[in-house]
Amino acid sequence: xxxxxxxxxxxxxxxxxxxxxxGKALLVSRKQLDCxxxxxxxxxxxxxxxxxxxxxxxxFLDEAFTAEEQEKIVGDKDKQEKIFLLSLDDVTNYFTDxxxxxxxxxxxxxxxxxxxxxYSSGGKVFWSWLCSPGGSSEKVALVGTYGNLAPLGxxxxxxxxVRPAFWLNLK
Length: 171
Prior knowledge:
Number of strands: 11
Strand content: 25-35%
Largest sheet: 4 strands, antiparallel
Order of helices and strands: EEEHHEHHHEEEEEEE
Low-confidence stretches: none
Mean pLDDT: 92
Strand order of the largest sheet: 1-2-11-4
Distance between the termini: 28 Å
Number of helices: 5
Radius of gyration: 15 Å
């Protein structure tokens, strides 16, 4: 869903990298699609065990992609995941600066009780989760509201925005 009332709309994706030799491209959502806690219990704060990863690879995957589209997503069989969040290294390497990392909230994400800020080019913005650990065991790194990097992060039980990524099979 992307509308404030949960209505469905196509997701716009941004291509971050194309690996022609491997026949795949890395895509990330142009907007922040949802707001979620990283870890519901606050104890499973690693990417491998967090509730956000489980949600992305079940409910989100099934809601956002048809079965045919899911077949075109290059999954990691060892990790049993198709959808993921970018890492701190990824957002450093794939985006040119803070402004390039900013992502506007969908109306659906804006409907959560968060302190979203108005952005100069229009729309609302808020911070979003990365899959990298933060400065302590209960924290997770993030991209700040205005695109700044926050490697020390916030507690994994905080409500943050989600910007999913995946590798698309181009073959």
